[in-house]
């Protein structure tokens, strides 16, 4: 999910139907859809609408997808940026990007701002793990905190951020009135993998020998992104063999390829 520096508040047609499994996360985030659709219901009772929520979970589990679905369900524009885009920015650029993004999101409110890989900017300050201190990252983080504090609870902008390392985030981000809610987006269990297969098998022309239970059983430890990948890879393998339908064997070959790829990736990391 390489988010662009920002998406200019385009609308998205992703909805909760596109997000398989994640029942608990969907139920929690549903309330944010309600805030965006009907803020008065809350403010008239004197309730303060949360400004942000942190989506926490391993890579490829659907955090970006879920954030887009919130925008799609509420029919509000989606602005996004990725923390990793800020890592090598010149001094002053990160902070001004953040300022810019919030300005645009406010102009188009109600709206969603999504910050992917927030840990890249939101690591605890002053702890750079042996590297030289990164002033630009701190400037960007400070600007983010300033922006979050700067707008009122009725601004209609809700900020969602994703991380797989909530433990290294600066505690200031989690303070009341900032990302004070955390929503867990976990790896899928066997039943959730079935649901994810259902979503990603839909566009494919399948042979009768395809059995979703079997596929879900064959893929323990696979994320939603891995499963999406398998489905497409299987279709490519079938096409390469000039088949008219995607067969069970194509899925088995795709699983092997993806496992091979994952092993390579792990070798690079370790
Ligand atoms: P990262 O932490 O790497 O940014 P992420 O958690 O944001 O990952 P996504 O970018 O949302 O993961 O997932 C990548 C793709 O994998 C999605 O666009 C979708 O095709 C598929 N996918 C992941 N999770 C699910 C899911 N729960 N249901 C359906 N598809 C999924």
Description:
In the N-terminal section; belongs to the AAA ATPase family. In the C-terminal section; belongs to the peptidase M41 family. Homohexamer. This is ATP-dependent zinc metalloprotease FtsH. ATP binds at residues 57-64. Keywords: ATP-binding, Cell membrane, Coiled coil, Hydrolase, Membrane, Metal-binding, Metalloprotease, Nucleotide-binding, Protease, Transmembrane, Transmembrane helix, Zinc. By secondary structure, this protein is an alpha/beta fold. It has ten helices and five strands, in the order H-H-E-H-E-H-E-H-H-E-E-H-H-H-H. A five-stranded parallel β-sheet has the order 2-3-4-1-5, with helices on both faces. Strand 2 (78-82), helix 4 (93-107) and strand 3 form a beta-alpha-beta unit. The chain is globular, with a radius of gyration of 20 Å. Mean pLDDT is 87; it is low at 1-6. The two termini are 22 Å apart. It has helices at residues 23-37, 39-43, 63-74, 93-107, 119-122, 135-150, 190-201, 212-217, 224-240, 248-269; strands at 52-56, 78-82, 111-116, 157-163, 181-184. The structure holds adenosine-5'-triphosphate. Adenosine-5'-triphosphate is lined by residues 1, 19-22, 59-65, 116, 162, 164, 196, 199, 224-225, 228.
């Amino acid at each position: 999910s390489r988010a662009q520096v920002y998406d200019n508040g385009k609308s998205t047609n992703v909805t909760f139907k596109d997000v398989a499994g994640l029942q608990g996360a969907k139920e929690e985030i549903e309330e944010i859809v309600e805030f965006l659709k009907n803020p008065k219901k809350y403010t008239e009772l004197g309730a303060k609408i949360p400004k942000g929520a942190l989506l926490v979970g391993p890579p490829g589990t659907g955090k970006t997808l879920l954030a887009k679905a919130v925008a799609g369900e509420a029919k509000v524009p989606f602005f996004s940026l990725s923390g990793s885009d800020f890592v090598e920015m010149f001094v002053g650029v990160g902070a001004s990007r953040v300022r810019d993004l919030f300005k645009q999101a406010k102009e188009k409110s109600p709206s969603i701002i999504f910050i992917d890989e927030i840990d890249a900017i939101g690591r605890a300050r002053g702890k750079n793990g042996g590297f030289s201190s990164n002033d630009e990252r701190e400037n960007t983080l400070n600007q983010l905190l300033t922006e979050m504090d700067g707008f009122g609870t009725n601004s209609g902008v809700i900020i969602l951020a994703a991380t797989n390392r909530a433990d290294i985030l600066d505690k200031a981000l989690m303070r009341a009135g900032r990302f004070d809610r955390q929503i867990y987006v976990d790896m899928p269990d066997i039943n959730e993998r079935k649901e994810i297969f259902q979503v990603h098998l839909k566009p494919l022309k399948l042979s009768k020998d395809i059995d979703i239970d079997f596929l879900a059983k064959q893929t323990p430890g696979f994320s939603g992104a891995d499963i999406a990948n398998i489905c497409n890879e299987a279709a490519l393998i079938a096409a390469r063999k000039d088949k008219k339908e995607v067969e069970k064997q194509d899925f088995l070959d795709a699983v092997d390829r993806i496992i091979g790829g994952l092993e390579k990736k792990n070798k690079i990391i370790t």
